[in-house]
Design brief:
By secondary structure, this protein is of the alpha+beta class. The chain is built from two helices and three strands. It is elongated, with a radius of gyration of 13 Å.
Length: about 70
């Protein structure tokens, strides 16, 4: 699914993809990191005890993520 999303984003000239993952979900964290996503921050929600991590991947080397 991530590969498909990246292909569609590339074909549509997107500069990057951003994802959030619950920090307690080790499987998702490893998956995103294995696909080259970098942790760039975290966000807290009042209904969760631990944060969500924010991930980002630049998919177009000629454009910057913004």
């Amino acid at each position: 699914m991530l590969k498909f999303i990246e292909d569609v984003a590339t074909k549509n000239n997107y500069s990057c993809i951003r994802l959030d993952a619950y920090s307690g979900n080790e499987t998702a964290l490893k998956l995103y990191e294995n696909f080259g996503y970098k942790k760039v921050g975290q966000v807290y929600f009042p209904w969760r005890d631990i944060p969500f991590y924010c991930y980002e991947k630049n998919i177009n080397s000629t454009l910057l993520c913004y």
